[in-house]
């Protein structure tokens, strides 16, 4: 009862805060996650962050980097922050037992979504650690028998029926594969998210596909030289990676101050090199440098898509007006046949 009361009060506070912020800065649904207090660089004229000033929080279209938590997932997690805070590896009292039971239920929820056995699910801190355990763990375990790993730059497939060597020493949790206390609230949230996905992903896919089509058609109807990177049939609908001919990608990103998008994965976004995944897909280096990744999620709205189209088209047109190459193309000159002199 106490847990439900605390969770209810916290949800009420978060909802009230979100409503206040939404009225103040209506640019994006991302405001729902912002605190109800002015930011250090916020004033009546807008927000200044890292020298960039905008009128309000940007539209959020970078869902491949991270995404807002579904409120239903938060509801599942809150009790394990507030009252059910036991260590799931404590075997001598009720608090540990209920946390352990919650973690194992979450493990089953994840397994059910991907068609695996709960015994195959190992909770880690994230994708980087999981990749290290999967790849280095396999290499180390089989190092006396096998010496080569054959893979591709874009591969992320499961490797069933193999054994791995742990990459960390510790208490032997997660059947010895990943030592360290499992954070119960995070495991519970993962399980709840997987259960929701199992129920709603068909609906989400249809809706997100509609938004992707709206975004692509909205841009292509107004400007030329727009190329979709990757297959349109065999792709996740929430990812739309576009290249804009005769536009430098970093300049486009800097101009899109009111839209949070990316030129690639957050893991490598500090590099100015074109995406190695796009290069592996056969995208020319010049076009890879002009790519922008739009990420669409469960909470993206049609209004946000339409605004993103408007801002993207406006910025591409602005940059092309300053591009001598685009002027040459409009005059009918084949720039690929030009032999550029070096000085």
Automatic annotation (TrEMBL):
Belongs to the class-V pyridoxal-phosphate-dependent aminotransferase family. NifS/IscS subfamily. It comes from the Eukaryota. It comes from Arachis hypogaea (Peanut). GO terms for molecular function: cysteine desulfurase activity. InterPro entries: Aminotrans_V_dom, PyrdxlP-dep_Trfase, PyrdxlP-dep_Trfase_major, PyrdxlP-dep_Trfase_small. This is Aminotransferase class V domain-containing protein. Residues 60-157, 173-307 form the Aminotransferase class V domain. Its cofactor is pyridoxal 5'-phosphate. One of its GO terms (biological process) is iron-sulfur cluster assembly. GO terms for cellular component: cytosol; mitochondrion.
């Amino acid at each position: 009862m106490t847990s439900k009361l605390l969770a209810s009060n916290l949800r009420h506070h978060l909802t009230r805060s979100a409503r206040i912020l939404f009225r103040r800065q209506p640019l994006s649904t991302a405001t729902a996650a912002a605190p109800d207090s002015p930011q250090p660089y916020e004033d009546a004229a807008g927000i200044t962050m890292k020298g960039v000033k905008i009128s309000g929080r940007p539209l959020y279209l970078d869902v491949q980097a991270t995404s807002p938590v579904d409120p239903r997932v938060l509801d599942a997690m809150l009790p394990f922050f507030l009252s059910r805070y036991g260590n799931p590896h404590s075997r001598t009292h009720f608090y540990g037992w209920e946390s352990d039971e919650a973690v194992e239920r979450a493990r089953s929820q994840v397994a059910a979504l991907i068609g695996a056995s709960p015994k195959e699910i190992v909770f880690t801190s994230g994708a980087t650690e999981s990749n290290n355990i999967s790849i280095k763990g396999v290499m180390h375990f089989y190092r006396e028998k096998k010496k080569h790993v054959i893979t591709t730059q874009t591969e992320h497939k499961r490797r069933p029926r193999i054994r791995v060597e742990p990459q960390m020493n510790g208490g032997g949790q997660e059947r010895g594969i990943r030592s360290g206390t499992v954070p119960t609230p995070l495991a519970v949230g993962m399980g709840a998210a997987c259960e929701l996905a199992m129920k709603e992903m068909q609906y989400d896919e249809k809706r997100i596909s509609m938004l992707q089509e709206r975004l692509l058609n909205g841009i292509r109807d107004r400007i030329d030289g727009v190329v979709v990177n990757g297959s349109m049939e065999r792709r996740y609908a929430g990812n739309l990676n576009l290249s804009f001919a005769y536009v430098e990608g970093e300049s486009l990103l800097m101009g899109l101050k009111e839209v949070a998008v990316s030129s690639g994965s957050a893991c490598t976004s500090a590099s100015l090199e074109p995406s190695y995944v796009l290069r592996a897909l056969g995208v020319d280096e010049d076009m890879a440098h002009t790519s922008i990744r739009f990420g669409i999620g469960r909470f993206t709205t049609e209004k946000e898509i339409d605004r993103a189209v408007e801002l993207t088209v406006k910025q591409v047109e602005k940059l092309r007006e300053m591009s001598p190459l685009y002027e040459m193309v409009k005059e009918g000159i084949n720039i690929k046949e030009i032999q550029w002199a070096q000085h």
